[in-house]
Write a structure and sequence with these properties.
about 325 residues, Rossmann fold, alpha/beta, eight-stranded mixed sheet, binds S-adenosylmethionine, about 35% helix
Amino acid sequence: MQMPTELKNLTEKAAEKYQLNVLRAVSRSITESYMANKGTDTQTTETDVFGAVYSVVRMPATYGAVYSALQHTVECFEMGDSYSLLDVGAGTGAGSAAASTLLDISSFTCIEREPEMRRYGEKYLEACPAASGKTEWKSYDLRSGIKDRADILLSSYVLNEMTEQDRIKTVKDMWEHTNKLLLIVEPGTPQAFSQLRRIREELLREGAHIAAPCVHEGGCPLFGEDWCHFTVRVQRSKLHRLIKEAAVPYEDEKFSYIAFAREKTGHIGSRILRHPQIGKGNIGLTLCSPDGCESIVVTKKDKIAFKEARKSECGDLFICNKDQKLRRINNG
Ligand SMILES: C[S@@+](CC[C@H](N)C(=O)[O-])C[C@H]1O[C@@H](n2cnc3c(N)ncnc32)[C@H](O)[C@@H]1O
């Protein structure tokens, strides 16, 4: 997974004016605050260098996570022709950029309270052909009430920065301002997952339906150390490797997500929760199904299931009934 070349080049350019030791120090502070994930709303992004480092170090990963989550969601959700999109806590625009490459978006509204993030985001989305000339940026604090609405509301890597009280209040507000689909993407950590579980319970009570990744709307069967998360492999640029002092040319971004829909989606199949275990003539799958979590072994004897399992990855739907069909999107 990689951001479109033009976007990637622009993000790299943003960091060029800073020395490597400065970029590394800011990058470390971003990682520390990301890992701490305290939900205390203390993160400050009010510097140009923060925006520049975020662009190079985090944007490719958040772009990849939103792209994957959205791709999985639209497989389960009957998509129409064109949608308006509201990106709350848009940062430097990674989520909107990912959505613009996957869906036909008629208008983008990005809410971002930090001017330095917004400034970069404005520049980047103008460089995305599908978002250029269609994007409006607004600066306000989400906690004071969302003032816009759209068909699709996207919140990526935002809610975990809030206190529990603000998070629940804000997510209910997000739902009220969603016409069709609310997609929430968060870090793939146990802490962020437990926040998503609580959000899941709250919004189900508000009458929301779940489009993905859950294949049912009953209680979540994952507890304790077991948490629902997925991984997207993101290519590292040369500068990303230098800043992160990384040995390998890619990073595996772990993310958790949940997509709520106004309309009930006819769930089919089970969700693959771990990397499939490929053996000789058999494939082991950990699945979340309407009956709970289960581990199954698919053997070659079951031709249709084996064929489906062989091309599957963690996060995919597993459908082995030939009468049921995935709505795979063209550019996936
Ligand atoms: C980690 S960044 C994520 C940015 C982007 N959504 C992405 O996926 O790359 C979180 C962003 O949410 C913004 N944010 C956090 N709390 C906010 C609030 N209460 N009101 C408006 N923006 C907020 C921050 O300023 C920051 O730019």
